[in-house]
Design goal:
Largest sheet: none
Helix content: over 70%
Oligomer: single chain
Shape: rod-shaped
Radius of gyration: 39 Å
Length: 146
């Protein structure tokens, strides 16, 4: 029953992860269409083969470029922040799982050691009982023959 629940939980997590990825991709597409598309269009007053301009549009272009760079950086930080948070969460879960497995391994070793001691004690008891029964049988056989 718990296996079914964990599969359902994993399916929900996968769906939410896919939704988050789709949302980020849509955000990137919108950003590229709206904020970076102007870089593909020729800027009026710019000479194609040189870095000189024919008009004084450098300041607005730099401001727009800086805004675009800031927008890209912001988007990358949001995406990376979410990814880093998920990675840190996963590392934390893996560390706790490692600790749990280590503790369970030690517990199993103690159990096996206890069973081995119990088995040895049972073998000694069985051997003692068998020896006593054999001795009683010899004594009984000796009394019959006398």
């Amino acid at each position: 029953m718990s296996a079914i629940r964990s599969e359902q939980t994993e399916a929900k997590d996968d769906d939410s992860n896919l939704a988050a990825v789709s949302e980020v991709e849509a955000g990137i597409r919108d950003f590229v269409r709206n904020d970076i598309a102007y870089l593909r269009r020729p800027v009026p007053g710019m000479v194609n083969n040189s870095s000189e301009t024919t008009t004084g549009t450098e300041a607005p272009l730099e401001a727009t470029t800086e805004a675009t760079v800031n927008s890209v950086n912001s988007l990358i930080q949001r995406v990376a922040g979410t990814s880093l948070g998920e990675i840190e969460k996963l590392v934390s879960e893996l560390e706790s799982l490692r600790d749990l497995l280590h503790a369970e391994g030690q517990r199993v070793q103690r159990e096996i050691s206890g069973y081995a001691q119990l088995s040895q004690a049972a073998m000694k008891s069985t051997r003692l009982i068998a020896d006593n029964v054999a001795q009683w049988k010899r004594t009984a056989d000796g009394l019959r023959h006398d």
